[in-house]
Design brief:
about 45% helix; about 375 residues; 7-stranded mixed β-sheet; alpha+beta; binds iron/sulfur cluster; disordered C terminus; single chain
Amino acid sequence: MSTRAPLRRALLAWYRGHRRDLPWRRSRDAYAIWISETMLQQTRVETVIPYYERFLTRFPDVRALAGADLDDVLGEWAGLGYYGRARNLHRAARVVADECGGALPDTADGLRALPGVGRYTAGAVASIAFDRPEPVVDGNVARVFARLFGIREDVRSAAVTARLWEEAEALARGADPGDLNQALMELGATLCTQRAPRCEACPVAARCDARARGDAETLPIKSRAAEPRSVEAVAAFLVRRGRALAVRRPAEGLLGGLWDLPGGELAPRERPAAGLRRALSERLGLAVAGARRLGSVDHVFSHRRLRLYVFRAEAPAGRVRRRGFDAHRWLPPAELPALPQSALMKKALDVVGAPVAANVRSRSRSARA
Ligand code: SF4
């Protein structure tokens, strides 16, 4: 009998009695599980639930997603962040529809061959949907293992990462690997939390090294992540004959495929008004004068802390050149909030205020209808 057998039994028994009733746990459909696992990366369960339900209603299966416009997919994703996930889902759905007969591969290796599917997602889908004994390690599982097995080294190091996957592999071997993996994730999310773990309610407390030593809250040990870089940028609510200009970012890169107000990053020590004139000249080929500053918004990305200065300006006559974006539209201002857009663009539109603000909520809803 494996030395992990008692641990497996304790985790499975606890999970079956305590698991939260989450929408994706009511399904064994591999597509639904794939969508949920992708949305849950870097994102809290409560945030994901409404997005998951809307997404599954709009794109109920692989073929529906494969046949959709990327704009519509990004529109459903808007506000969830990390938009590369949505672009990859769309790309992978097309591969599954075109090359796999519309059925997701049923092995971790097959899943990993799809765009955007890494080891974690492949292991989660293979184990939960197809009962494959494949491991998963996410932040929750890493924290549980560091405490349970007393791993007092940097969990981001290559050696510890390899050890975590080995431990997960050993545990996943056996009956019900999907439940076992979900038990580990659930334990990390509900009891073995970053602060104040509830060891008294934990099904593996008797075997836990950190519990025995009393140092659970100091684990896991993580090397310091690099501080986000501070960046300043400008954007313009640029109006011509009552219509405002929106530009679409190229599919690859930060916020790819989403719509934006035109603008760009400031050079070091560049003044916002001068930077706006330069950015609009370089990127649109328009010489914009007399821009009025409306305000600014702050936004934090994973590696950047951004301050965006928002201006209003009249666009001069002339053709718009496209540099650094792949499409543009002149729209009635009230239609801007309906475009697939990032949380940053929403904040910028809030600063613009009157021409669009009254319509932000209703248009956002109608865009999702
Ligand atoms: Fe985490 Fe406490 Fe359980 Fe150990 S006993 S795994 S520290 S909740």
